[in-house]
Design goal:
Blueprint lengths: L13 H17 L19 H5 L3 E6 L2 H17 L3 E5 H4 L10 E6 L15
Parallel strand pairs: 1-2, 1-3
């Protein structure tokens, strides 16, 4: 029941900790990235040009564990707000698929801090 960032912080399970920390995590994640005045979203860390992002016809997200659940929430938000179709896959299973690639699809992977990255297959790059 340690109080350091990697510990359970007094919660019985990590899942409970993550559930109770969600509002703060969302606030921290969007802070400085979303303008409530203009509605613009700033994604400078992604190093993707506005023109390239605007040309995206769909989004593919690969994630594992809790990040997969976050990706599902993101899917609903992106589809509702940006009106782009979004596919979410388990990153550990994505390598075994032979996805139908769209040259204008954007792809990203969500990582939990404790997991090493899962490389994208060449067909998806």
């Amino acid at each position: 029941m340690g109080s350091h960032p990697g510990g359970k912080g007094g919660y019985k399970h990590f899942m409970l900790k993550e559930i109770w920390e969600q509002p703060r995590a969302i606030t921290d994640t969007t802070l400085g990235r979303v303008s409530l005045d203009s509605g613009k979203v700033f994604l400078g860390e992604m190093k993707i040009a506005d023109k390239e992002l605007a040309a995206a016809t769909s989004i593919n997200i690969a994630a594992c564990g809790t990040s997969w659940h976050a990706a599902l929430a993101g899917k609903y938000m992106i589809e509702r707000l940006a009106r782009l179709p979004v596919d979410v896959d388990y990153a550990s299973e994505y390598r075994y698929r032979n996805p139908i690639a769209d040259a204008n699809a954007s792809a990203c992977s969500l990582l939990s801090p404790a997991r090493p990255p899962t490389p994208w297959p060449r067909s998806a790059r």
